[in-house]
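Thread: quick sanity check before group meeting

JM: Hey all, I'm pulling together slides for Thursday and realized we never actually wrote out the predicted structure for the chain we discussed last week. Dropping the sequence here so it's in one place. If anyone has concerns about the input, flag it before I start.
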Amino acid sequence: MSKVPTPKAVTKQYDFLNTEPDGGFLFSVRGGIPLTRAFDELSLLLAQGQAVVEAVCEVSATEDVPEAPRAAVRLLDFSYALVQSMHNGLIEHENATAKP
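JM (edit): ok, ran it. Output follows.
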């Protein structure tokens, strides 16, 4: 009896950055990428975004809303933690459901 492989969760194509009046998009996320790989990349993007915002907080003084840059860092902190939690949960789920 042949075993039917369990499908893996993958990305779906997502077009973004509309640059044309007719709806043309400049960028897209490719479909078919395993979510574990996509989560890895998203995590790296968030970490880099956080590093940039932290650098801005160190070198610029915002007089109108002094806490705005720090709030952005906090939002990235929460986002990064959520991505890591989701990624770890997905790996745990895959390990738990893997057939020996």
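AS: nice. The longest helix spans residues 68-97. Residues 35-97 form one domain.
JM: adding both to the slides.
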